[in-house]
């Protein structure tokens, strides 16, 4: 199972780091009917100490996602509070007085 990052508001989002159209694939004809039309997002691969979070990144587990969010928070000086998580969704906000959220 993969966890997907859904970013509600990201004022610092850099659109130049979007995945290219080759990285996003829509059904290749050999997939089952239930997967037709679903986007295929790239898996997050940690390459640097300050991870850049983008909409649609996939993580192998919630533990991996939380680890990356904590690292991102350290470098961006935010204090994440993890809320209302389940198998399909991940919700994280910054402590009071901060507008950062995932």
Description of the structure:
Residues 1-35 are annotated as: Disordered. This is Transposase MuDR plant domain-containing protein. Residues 52-101 form the Transposase MuDR plant domain. With 102 residues, the chain is α+β, with helices and mostly antiparallel strands. The chain has one domain (3-94). Helices cover 15% and strands 16% of the residues. The protein has one helix spanning 62-76; strands spanning 3-4, 25-26, 39-40, 58-59, 80-83, 91-94. It has a two-stranded antiparallel ribbon. A two-stranded antiparallel ribbon has the order 2-3. The longest helix has 15 residues, at 62-76. The radius of gyration is 15 Å and the shape is globular. Residues 7-29 have low confidence and may be disordered.
């Amino acid at each position: 199972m993969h966890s997907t990052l859904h970013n509600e508001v990201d004022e610092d989002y850099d659109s130049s780091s979007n995945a290219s159209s080759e990285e996003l694939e829509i059904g290749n004809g050999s997939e089952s009917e239930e997967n037709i039309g679903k986007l295929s997002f790239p898996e997050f691969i940690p390459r640097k100490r300050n991870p850049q979070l983008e909409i649609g990144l996939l993580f192998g587990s919630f533990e991996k996602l939380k680890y990356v969010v904590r690292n991102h928070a350290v470098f961006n000086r935010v204090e994440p509070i993890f809320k209302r998580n389940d198998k399909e969704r991940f919700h994280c906000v910054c402590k009071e007085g901060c507008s950062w959220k995932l």
